[in-house]
Amino acid sequence: MIDVIKCVVMGVCGSGKTSVAQAIAHKYNATFIDGDDLHPRANIVKMASGNPLNDEDRAPWLERIGDVFFSLQRRSLSGVVVCSALKKSYRDIIRKDNDGLIFIHLRGSMETILERMAARQGHYMKKEMVQSQFDTLQIPGDDEPDVIEVCIEKPLDEVINDVITKLEQRLAK
User: Which residues of 119-133 are buried (b: 16+ CB within 10 A; e: fewer)?
Assistant: First the structure.
């Protein structure tokens, strides 16, 4: 039986992060948090005015996400946070002082992501914006053993089953 689970569900836009994270949180009775809700006020104002965030803007947000896991850990609570975590440096900020944290990287082709984004009601992202996410993405390598990669090129229920299976295998170690 798994006592405490701490996961970041990561990937580019349209990869299914929210759906997968909610399924994990439900299965393990964990707190679900959308990382976007943790942005500092200055970031929200900047994005609302149409200006993209830079790495300096993101740093306090990523630290907040790390702080959430630190707080949950201190209280022996489980949590699942959605955060694109596209760069290794972003993941490093989140994992600081958070032993046992697992990143679940939902990985798929740009074609799949574009199809999913086009199918979303009222949430179409232009191809250039999707391309910028792929350009920014630093695919986790062997130096990040806390990352589980799951292919999203299949129906959502199969993706969720794959995630749960891989997560349970990892936690059983």
Answer: eeeeeebeeeebebb
* Domain architecture of the chain: domains with CATH: 6-172 (3.40.50.300)
Token couple for 30: 């964990």
Q: Looking up tokens 């979303």, which residue turns up?
A: 120
Measured CA to CA in angstroms, residue 131 lies from 6, 13, 50, 64, 67 at distances of 29, 10, 18, 27, 30
Beta bridge partners of 148: 104
The predicted-structure confidence for 114-157, as pLDDT tens digits, reads as follows 888 877 765 545 666 788 889 999 999 999 999 999 999 999 99
* Nearest-angstrom CA–CA distance, 152 and 12: 11
CA distance 14 to 172: 30
161's tokens: 């089953």
Tokens 């990985």, located at residue: 107
Q: Is 74 exposed, middle or buried (0-12, 13-18, 19+ CB in 10 A)?
A: exposed
Condensed to tens digits (0 to 9), the pLDDT of residues 63-115 reads 999 999 999 999 999 999 999 999 999 999 999 999 999 999 999 999 999 88
